[in-house]
Amino acid sequence: TPRNLAISRGPRSNCDQAKPHEIWRFRGDPEATVTRLVGRQVAVSLDFDGAPCRVAGRSVEPLLSWLVEQDWWSELVTRQYWRVLLDGELLAELYHDRRADAWVLERVYD
Question: CA torsion sign, 72 to 75 to 80 to 84?
């Protein structure tokens, strides 16, 4: 079941107040590259520009952002995707579902 979503909008100092949640990391062959699909709602804190600065209590370095709009003819899906570096070491993708106003950690790359 999805967890409750908490979004903090404000200065970067608010980013330090986000509470940690679970983010799983595959631990196996150090030479292997694995994509883990997560699909779980997470707490996200945003900086002044609306970019994530903390995800599930971890520091974030945004690397890339893109907007996806699809199925406009039936039920519009609008998501702002972010590729981020968590704690300076873990590459991940998350998105903000604009219609549901929910943040979801979609995948983690090992």
Answer: negative
